[in-house]
Amino acid sequence: MEYPFEKYRSTSRDKETFLKLLPNVSAALPEYFRALSVAHHSIEQKNMFNQPQGIHQSTGLTSSLNLLLVAMVNDRVISVNAELVKFIDALRILVLKWYSFGNDLKACVYFGYYYYTHKSASEHEVRQQLDAIRFLVDESSRVSQDPIILQLMKPPNSRRWFAAESHIGDKLYPLTVQAGDFARVDLPRPAYQVSFKASQMFDLRVPITLTDQELERPQISNGKAIVSCPACGQKCRIDVYKRMEIKCPTCQQVWTQST
Ligand SMILES: [Zn+2]
């Protein structure tokens, strides 16, 4: 079985830049990956009822997460006052990036299992750790505006998605999530929650949550649909096909959608 993000790789120049510009994060990630790997190993071990044995505190997952969160603020990847979802999204991007430099796949799989499928437990943990580090970091520290750091933290996904009959997809990147792997939730606000419950494929390129503003469900009638441009928001009336390549008449952005 191959995970959909398995071939995701960065260039060696990207890696050099990352190590140089994010020294604290680079120092914290190996230990976090080690702890994630151990956790992955411990869920692989099943008890006599074929249930996972559970994660032991001794794996160091909590302490390595704590150090990584401090490092993220110190390297100005994120501000300590950022929203919880932003922190978790930044973690996802950093873990995937670190993987793309040739690091352990199983660590990523466990990260996905914990953050997509066990969302409330993982959110609770990050929230607790954020409360714990608040006094250790500079609260006024701003997020870096260095374009190279912003480029390094750029996720391999957009925030412009569409809903089709049995899947959701990214309008600008070749990413798809099948029915059973996501669910509609109403709390704390209406959104689509990616869980990878059905496939267990934990594609770390996919955001964990997509809000209603980020995901469009086109109304289709008489073979026509109205869809909006992912770049400028222009509404376009189009003929509906299984797979469509659309060009915005206003800004010329091209994107793809399926039904
Ligand atoms: Zn446009």
Give a short overview.
The chain has 259 residues and is of the alpha+beta class. The chain has helices at 12-21, 23-44, 61-74, 84-100, 105-117, 119-133, 147-152; strands spanning 161-163, 167-170, 176-178, 182-185, 191-194, 209-211, 215-216, 220-221, 224-228, 235-239, 243-247, 254-258. It contains 7 helices and 12 strands.
Strand content: 15-25%
The topology string of helices and strands comes to HHHHHHHEEEEEEEEEEEE
Strand adjacency order, main sheet:
3-2-1-7
Shape: globular
Bound molecules: zinc ion
How many strand units?
Answer: 12
How many H/I helical runs? 7
- The helix content is 25-40%
Domain count, please report it: 2
- How many angstroms does the end-to-end distance come to? 27 Å
Report mean pLDDT, rounded to a whole number: 92
Structural class, from helix and strand content? Answer: alpha+beta
Report on this model:
It is a single chain. With 259 residues, this protein is an alpha+beta fold. It folds into two domains: 12-152, no CATH class; 161-258, no CATH class. It has seven helices and twelve strands. A four-stranded mixed β-sheet has the order 3-2-1-7, with no helix packed on it. Strands 4-5-6 form a three-stranded antiparallel β-sheet, with no helix packed on it. It has a three-stranded antiparallel β-sheet with strand order 8-9-10, with no helix packed on it. Strand 4 and strand 5 form a beta hairpin. Helix 2 (23-44) packs antiparallel against helix 3, helix 3 packs across helix 6 (119-133) and helix 5 (105-117) packs across helix 6. The chain is globular and about 55 Å long. The two termini are 27 Å apart. The mean pLDDT is 92. It binds zinc ion (ZN). Zinc ion (ZN) is lined by residues 229, 231-232, 234, 248, 250-251, 253. Zinc ion binds at residues 229, 231-232, 234, 248, 250-251, 253.
